[in-house]
Specification:
single chain; 369 residues; alpha/beta; Rossmann fold; 2 domains; 7-stranded mixed sheet; 17% strand
């Protein structure tokens, strides 16, 4: 099969869909991989490395896109819509619940679109997990940075020092992102709270952190009591395929101390904090109600050398199946089938269908049986 790897176009997104090591695996199986020139340079992979692995380097973006199977990292942006084709397989992060325009275009195009974030294996999200681990760790790293006075923050050192209290980190959500954020915050010496609605998960977190983290059942009253005292508030809520629920409204943000910082990792799914909107690596923050807001939706793109390899470790087995068998791979792999969002001019993922009930089928006259 012909496999295309375009260069990512999102602001300062330096990850790449396939590493040279992954290309070599595909080439050894007889597949032809076409990589857009400089696609891997931000992750530390040169065109020469791809060529040695068996790839063909193409200078035009359309020559990477014009393939049976296209592997990306982030969702296509508007400028890339023109390259999406009928009968093509697109395998990447999509996060459709946050983008009606992309959802509409994918349905109209006739593409088969499979989303990394909805591939599900034994009730886990194996292709989302490595990026969630990175994003959780980065949330505290970036939060600590923007708490610095020179970055607009309160001037709080999260770990404190003897004689001075450490900073307070409040984390909404005890899943992978929240757990990894807590590990870094605890390691820095901060005071840490995690809120979650799953009592079993809270019990598990107690086995990890013991008394080092305050584990609280998530209720509106409990969140309202905690947020005003947070130096760093981290949104770590995930509802697969859907927009995240709003847990912190505008009025509650206004009660936070001036110079406090909010990092919402759920921003690519709409965010769980009302005042948080998507930003970019070029302009990562803005101030509202005196609070510094960080809303970069592709946080792992800040560490592309690590993130690309971590992502490929998880995606490659599924890429191989798609390259070997095409869409028939969906019939033989239940986990991969769960990743299917759009096929035959129809929105097919059950959760995303609930978000866009009017978009289940747009081109009925072209829908295939």
């Amino acid at each position: 099969m012909e496999v295309g790897v375009p260069k990512e176009t999102k602001d300062r997104e330096f990850r790449v869909g396939l590493s040279p090591a992954s290309v070599r695996v595909l080439a050894d199986r007889g597949h032809h991989v076409f990589v857009e020139t400089q696609a891997g340079i931000g992750s530390g992979f040169s065109d020469e490395e791809y060529q040695k692995a068996g790839a063909t380097i193409v200078s035009q973006v359309k020559d990477a896109w014009n393939r049976e199977l296209v592997i990306k990292v982030k969702e296509p942006l508007a400028a890339e819509y023109q390259f999406i084709q009928q009968g093509q397989i697109l395998f990447t992060y999509l996060h459709l619940a946050a983008s009606r325009s992309l959802t509409e275009y994918l349905i109209d195009s006739g593409v088969t679109a499979i989303a990394y974030e909805t591939v599900e294996l034994n009730r886990t999200l194996p292709l989302l997990m490595p990026m969630s681990i990175i994003a959780g760790r980065l949330a505290v790293q970036f939060g600590a940075r923007f708490l610095e006075r020179q970055q607009g923050g309160r001037g709080v050192l999260l770990g404190g020092i003897p004689g001075v209290s450490p900073g307070q980190v409040t984390i909404l959500g005890g899943g992978v992102v929240g757990t990894e954020a807590a590990k870094i915050a605890v390691g820095m010496g901060a005071k840490v709270q995690i809120f979650d609605i799953n009592v079993e998960r809270l019990s598990y977190l107690e086995t990890l952190f013991g008394s080092r983290v305050e584990l609280l059942y998530s209720t509106p009253a409990a969140i309202e009591a905690a947020v005003p005292d947070a130096d760093l508030l981290i949104g770590a809520v995930l509802v697969p395929g859907r927009n995240a629920p709003t847990l912190v409204d505008r009025a509650l943000v206004a009660k936070m101390r001036s110079g406090s910082v909010i990092v919402d990792v759920a921003v690519d799914q709409g965010g769980c904090i009302e005042t948080l909107r998507p930003t970019s690596h070029s302009q990562p923050t803005y101030v509202e109600s005196g609070v510094v807001h960080y809303g970069v939706p592709n946080m792992p793109g800040a560490v592309p050398w690590t993130a690309t390899q971590a992502l490929n470790n998880s995606t490659l087995p599924y890429v191989i199946k798609l390259a070997d068998s095409g869409i028939k791979a969906l019939e033989n792999d239940a986990a991969l089938a769960m990743g299917l969002n759009v096929k035959n001019y129809q929105l097919v993922h059950p959760v995303v269908k609930q978000v866009f009930k009017d978009l289940t089928t747009r081109n009925v006259e072209f829908a295939l049986t």
